[in-house]
Amino acid sequence: MTQTRSDIAPIHVIGGGMAGSEAAWQIASMGVPVVLHEMRPERPTDAHHTDGLAELVCSNSFRSDDHETNAVGLLHWEMRQADGLIIGAGDRNSLPAGGALAVDRDRFSAEVTATLEAHPLVTLERGEVPGLPPAEWDSVIVATGPLTSPALADAIRGLTGDDGLAFFDAIAPIVHADSVDLSKAWFQSRYDKGETEEERTAYLNCPMSREQYEAFIDALLAAPKTEFKEWEGTAYFEGCLPIEVMAERGRETLRYGPLKPVGLTNPHDPAVKPHAIVQLRKENALGTLFNIVGFQTKMKYAAQTEVFRMIPGLEEARFARLGGIHRNTFLNSPRLLDGAMRLKADPRLRFAGQVTGVEGYVESAAMGLLAGRLAAAERLGRPLDMPPPTTAIGALLNHITGGAEASTFQPMNVNFGLFPPLEAPLKGGRRGKRDRARAYAERAKDHWLAWLGAPAPAPAALAD
Fold it and tell me: What CATH number should be reported for the domain holding residue 289?
């Protein structure tokens, strides 16, 4: 058994979001004390509504849980093998979502908060870290996410001499389930996906005729929008575009995106194929709240209620939360970070999560998991072995620390395009997209388990 030595200096983690919470958990699990700094509620943000750790501020979905042919599901699998706190809490607070992993956001955050507060090696300190950490903090993980406080962001810019990059992120509205007209809407997951009836009926669907769709697009384009003001010119992240920005790219864009009318049959009128379909996903375990899938928006509040009530089935919708928009910031990581996620200008600072340019809840948590393990290993004097780029976590690490082109760096979700090509042709004549994805996943699992099991003996002074 390994003992925790009393003279091990703590590692400081700044930010109690997905990445910071996961990093703190991994550090403590390796027997190293950690101080987790979260500025809320002393200093609120434009997007958070509670002071809970790992609060989900946008969607409540961790996306696909298919670990055999989907890169996101594979990332889930790797995090489970590494005893990830975020994925574990997600599993225990999951909601039916037709093959995706969606969570009850309040219960999820409450579990993460309670787990970290109860750990004997974790100290949770509330309050902002105003600027660069003190010099005596010799090992720090900055996991402040896309809403890094201005003081810390300015200090990082001053240290690196880089203005960084920024993009807007938009939040989808949430409606009360009992305000949806079920004489027009129906429950069904696309292609009836899911192993249980609850999963196969996890989404609410609102059909649109061609005329209704065209009128909706007209209203969407004409509605007053939030002005960028001093943020004018900042780029959006392509994976979370406001719905009206998608509409501006072409009147049919939404029909090939979140409103695609495929894999669903309207039981109220099965002979008529809808021109477009709006989907709503369960937001909490009680099933009392649903979010409108893909409806991130920068429309002003009054316009949102008017435009969204044009959707059949939502004419009397009551909104628990309207959509919003805020600025996300991230580092030019390929230029500023080394291969172990440390800032080249000050290696005591390691970065993790969305601030590094990964996008998505699980991607952020995965980078926190890796940063925590690397920081703890460094503190214990163990080798800093990087995960192979053939794994999902290794592919993300490689992308942000050199795989991406610094001059055009943009936030990225995990996908098989980030993985090295397969070394050999597929066996048995397989050559389809799913076959290739399955081969990538099989290789990744073998390499991830080998990396997790690689011998890393503790220093002799820590052993019984």
Answer: 2.40.30.260
